[in-house]
Specification:
Layout lengths: L16 H11 L5 H8 L3 H14 L25 H32 L3 H13 L4 H4 L2 H13 L5 H9 L2 H6 L13 H11 L7 H10 L3 E4 L25 E4 L9 E3 L2 E3 L3 H9 L3 H13 L8 H12 L5 H9 L1 H4 L11 H11 L3 E3 L2 H10 L21 H8 L1 H7 L23 H12 L36 E3 L2 H4 L8 H12 L6 H12 L6 H10 L8
Antiparallel strand pairs: 1-2, 3-4, 5-6
Helix pairs in contact: 1-2, 3-15, 4-7, 4-17, 8-12, 10-11, 13-14, 14-15, 23-24, 23-25, 24-25
Length: 555
């Protein structure tokens, strides 16, 4: 646990209670006064080492009950499958996927809300936007769970292993078309995003590198577990891969792999996935690229790029480990500089999870909660595109700011904030079609199958129309679940009774709710609100004021 700082590192030497508060405000969804007391009694490196150690050694959460191994494709279609049977299987599977992805959102929200190691969930959220995949195209809820579990497992681990795990991740293989990439016609989608978004950044590779990498990664598919006895039944050629997939286990089909020599990132050889990972990890831009992404995520002001360079050096020395990079980041003076404080706009998920935890709400993640996050711009398992969420100042717009300021309606009254119209219909939303005509045609062929045969539902299978616990698109059946299930009790915040003085009450609530230093104007306004409210209404009135303040949006 005790590590010596590198000579290139300017480890923060002074360490105050406010520094500990700032650290927790950035790596957690909430502020814990007791933990601030514990950490502030240590030095900065000791505090950071303690957090990293606890995060790396904490047990991983158990999977949702519906995750079954091995996964079975319940809409598998063969040449002799009757149309009526296929239609029934397809509808039931669509409904189940919708129910499972809704439950997966509840499951992750609950983990973020109750975890003893919030840094791990904060980083899992970061990697969810970095290695972005969306349920709208992946469709398979269990594949989305596996991706989430992988991102949590490697959140502070070895990036070399992480990069390979994500390359052969079932959801990623489906989302970026690696599952069907053949050596004769290699698909470049994954190779392009691999370099630009996942590992190196724009300008660090060439189009030739993309093409050659696509060849190196060709031949991988998703199959049943080894040793599985599959039915000896023919499949109609050209059937959508969704309906012919026998499992979610990555397997290299040698006859579909391009075995010829490739030239990638200045090296030549008969490369496959392991060699591509090695070449990428050895590229000097890899550590620097990841460092910049982490600096932006944690909103650290680094104008001289000193922290970025130190993080990249730690990455290189450790053979690609992420924890040493984070140690450099969290112990750097720049992390605690005035320019780095109170400047990070909370993501919608951090905003909602933080409010639920800080206010000790009795809460269930409902479809209303999901709609609220979607309206704010961060629906879990549905990032806007492969680039993930842009974050930063882009979290704030004319519509989203108003909804943020009305968070109290959910937290205190369990009702829909004013102005929040339902997003689409409960049945789901269709995937946006590519603008390019050729890409649009290819996309539609992939989704429905070019030679699908006599389909009982025509070509309009709409496989990307997912629902929050609903049945298949077009069918009736609306969920009876209430929009919000939230209960607030002041007694949970003040188990020993409400403070007698308004000043004590206000100080307690401001300390609990705000990650940033309290402005005198906000404190005065809170005291005035408390003074003008009845004794039993003071808590709600002050909370409502704080949640609607610009201060609450920042950490």
């Amino acid at each position: 646990m005790n590590q010596q700082p590198d000579s290139a590192e300017a480890v923060k030497s002074s360490w105050t209670r406010e520094d500990a508060r700032h650290l927790l405000g950035r790596i957690s969804f909430w502020i814990d006064e007791q933990q601030i007391d514990t950490l502030s009694a240590l030095s900065c490196p000791e505090a950071v080492d303690r957090i990293l150690h606890e995060t790396q050694t904490a047990p991983l959460p158990a999977a949702p009950e519906w995750v079954k191994e091995p996964w079975i494709n319940t809409e598998r279609r063969y040449q002799d499958t009757p149309g009526s049977e296929f239609g029934r299987m397809h509808g039931m599977t669509n409904a189940r996927y919708g129910s499972e992805i809704a439950d997966l959102r509840r499951w992750w929200f609950q983990e973020m809300l109750t975890t003893a190691v919030p840094l791990r969930e904060m980083l899992t959220l970061f990697w969810h936007g970095h290695f972005a995949s969306s349920i709208d195209k992946v469709l398979v809820s269990q594949a989305m769970y596996h991706q989430n579990a992988t991102q949590r497992q490697y959140a502070l681990g070895n990036f070399r292993e992480f990069l390979k795990a994500m390359t052969l991740d079932p959801a990623m293989m489906i989302y970026l078309d690696l599952e069907e990439s053949d050596g004769q016609q290699p698909n470049e989608n994954y190779a392009r995003e691999f370099y630009e978004l996942f590992a190196l950044g724009h300008g660090q590779y060439s189009q030739e590198d993309i093409m050659e990498t696509a060849r190196a990664l060709s031949g991988w598919t998703l199959d049943a577990p080894p040793g599985t006895e599959l039915p000896q039944r023919e499949t109609v050629p050209g059937t959508n891969r969704r309906f012919t997939r026998d499992g979610l286990i990555p397997r290299l089909v040698e006859e579909r792999h391009d075995p010829r020599e490739k030239a990638i990132l200045g090296k030549k050889g008969n490369f496959g996935v392991d060699e591509v990972i090695d070449l990428t990890m050895n590229h000097p831009a890899c550590g620097s690229f990841l460092a910049q992404k982490l600096l932006a995520y944690f909103a650290v002001h680094d104008p001289q790029q000193r922290v970025r360079n130190s993080m990249a050096a730690a990455f290189s020395r450790s053979n690609g480990k992420l924890a040493p990079m984070l140690r450099v980041l969290f112990t750097s003076p720049e992390f605690y500089a005035p320019e780095s404080r109170g400047c990070r706009i909370k993501s919608p998920v951090a905003l909602l999870v933080g409010a639920c935890r800080q206010l000790q709400l009795n809460v269930t993640f409902t479809r209303g909660m999901n709609r609220y996050l979607a309206a704010l711009g961060q629906e879990l398992f549905h990032p806007p595109n492969v680039k993930g969420w842009p974050g930063g100042e882009l979290w704030i717009g004319a519509g989203t700011l108003s909804l943020r300021y009305h968070l109290a309606e959910i937290a205190l009254e369990s009702r829909t904030p004013p102005g929040m119209a339902p997003i689409g219909r409960d049945r789901g939303r269709p995937v946006a079609l590519p603008k390019d005509p050729a890409e649009r045609k290819a996309f539609l062929q992939r989704m429905s199958g070019e030679n699908f045969g006599n389909r009982p539902m025509g070509g309009n299978l709409a496989p990307a129309m997912m629902s929050e616990g609903m049945s298949m698109p077009g069918r009736r059946g609306r969920s009876t679940e209430p929009e919000f299930q939230v209960t607030f009790s002041p007694d949970r915040l003040f188990p020993e009774g409400l403070p007698e003085s308004n000043e004590q009450l206000v100080d307690s609530l401001l300390s609990r709710l705000l990650h940033v230093p309290v402005r005198p104007e906000l404190r005065m306004a809170a005291q005035e609100v408390a003074s003008n409210s009845g004794r039993s209404d003071r808590v709600n009135a002050v909370i409502r004021l704080v949640l609607a303040s610009p201060d609450y949006q920042l950490s």
